[in-house]
Amino acid sequence: MADHQNLAQDTHEAVSGHGGGAPRTDGSDAKPVNKLRKRALSESFSAVDLFCGAGGLSEGFRQSGFSVAAGSDNDPDAMATYAANFPESRAITGDIRQPQIKEQILDAARGVSVLIGGPPCQAFSQVRNHTRMIDDPRNALYREFVDVLRQTVPPVFVVENVTGMDQMGVREQIAADLSLDGHYTVLPQVADAADFGVPQTRKRLLFIGVRSGTGMVPPELVGTNASQGVTLARFRGSRRPRYQVVVQQHIRSLLVGEALADPEDISVVSAADAIGDLAGLSVGNRQDQLSFAEIPEPASAYQRLMREGAGEILTNVQVPRINPDTRLRLLGIPAGGNYRDLEEELLERYITGHRWGQDNGTGKLSRRHFYAYRRLHPSVWAWTLNTKADSVYHYEAARALSVREFARLQSFPDRFSFTTDPRRGMIDGRHDGGPAHSRYRQVGNAVPPLLAKAIATSLLTHLRAAESNGLKFAEAR
């Protein structure tokens, strides 16, 4: 690990926080922090988001009360979305390995309260040949995150990634890298978004670190544990299978089941409570915005929450076209079902004679098609979304979901609009597939904002307590 001569000399001085006013001590004669003071503390904490994508982490931190100083990513389409939704923040587009981009990031990150991000890590099997993860050239972006952390030394950081990294000693390696030789205390943990009010099961591996010597400890997130207490079971009926929500028979799970069934409870949210008001969107709709006056009133507390601050227009409501074969298959699959529920004739490669996609020569669907035929169940949350429109189909209508419905299942509020860079062609950092695919990709790759908000709120509590107990922060930039 590179030397740490630029780390703060006094471990009781963090490099972020609020300006002005003497902090409260915890002595017996200390005065309580009044409401205005508390609000000033929360508003002063700031974050920089590396590998931010469209801004799921940033949105959650903003909702919790952090100011977001900057976000950075190499994808120009995702950064177009970021810039549109975070006009108060610096949108730094480009490869962090380029010196001019790195310097912009460092400039933005010096003096913030928390560094957040999800650096891509491509090499999971490095321990087999005793190569440390941070030394593997395929993990250059991860190494850059660690370097920015080393050079800026915020009081707190959060790293998130897929749980596939949580194997073969990788968790311990990452925690050791991020500790910067003991300058941070790091707590790895896995959190499922469904346990934090997100209508989707989505597990993320989190590394939360706090500066040693600050008196803070990394918080452990505690959710509803809904993902462990509720399952979707398949029952074989007389005609065709059906799917039903099953709640484990112990008190905590029963309470989760009650919350899931209550449209006014936002602690556990079903697919219908998330997107039921958008069921009337039509297949092949090319109009990407409509007035809220054209759709039903919200039928759940979650729908009302998502609509807050959205104004009069709802965006990202285009719905992909589907071919006749796909429609027939969807009609043959019950809510909550998948390709296993298709009758034999619906497994034919071309049902109506309309030829599409690649033919594997067997006359049947290939295994790579199976993942595409999955329908939501209205009474439970969605499974983990990916970056493609055909990764999930509506529980009621025979259609794919709009980007807006993807966003709802990820807990992005309706005021958050997804767009792309207006430049044409393959510009630096752009992914193949065109603007429509990019929007699905941006949503599918994001950290759910409500999960991010739970992380940020927990950190905010610790930062406030540290300040109130006399920890001095440098004035925020």
Class based on secondary structure composition and strand pairing: alpha/beta
Strand tally: 13
User: Which sequence of SSEs, written as H and E, runs from N to C?
Assistant: EHEHEHEHEHEHEEHEEHHEHEHHHHHE
CATH topology of the largest domain: Rossmann fold
What is the C-alpha radius of gyration, as a whole number of Å?
24 Å
Strand percent estimate = 5-15%
Output the CATH homologous superfamily of the largest domain. Vaccinia Virus protein VP39
Poorly predicted regions are: 1-42
Q: CATH class of the largest domain, please?
A: Alpha Beta
Span from first to last CA?
28 Å
Adjacency order of strands in the biggest sheet: 4-3-2-5-6-8-7
- CATH-level-2 architecture of the largest domain: 3-Layer(aba) Sandwich
Q: What overall form do the CA principal axes indicate?
A: globular
- Helix percent reads 25-40%
**How confident overall, as mean pLDDT?**
86
Please indicate the count of domains: 2
Major sheet details = 7 strands, mixed
Instruction: Work out the helix count.
Output: 15
Walk me through what this model shows.
It is a single chain. This protein has helices spanning 35-44, 56-64, 76-85, 99-109, 140-152, 170-178, 226-229, 251-261, 271-275, 301-307, 324-331, 367-370, 403-410, 434-445, 449-468, and strands spanning 13-14, 46-50, 67-73, 90-93, 114-117, 156-162, 184-192, 203-211, 230-235, 242-247, 289-291, 313-315, 472-473. The chain is α/β, with parallel strands linked by helices and 477 residues long. It has two domains: 13-223 and 450-473, Vaccinia Virus protein VP39 (Rossmann fold, 3-Layer(aba) Sandwich); 269-429, DNA Methylase, Chain A, domain 2 (Alpha-Beta Complex), CATH 3.90.120. The protein has a seven-stranded mixed beta sheet with strand order 4-3-2-5-6-8-7, with helices on both faces. The radius of gyration is 24 Å and the shape is globular. Mean pLDDT is 86; it is low at 1-42.
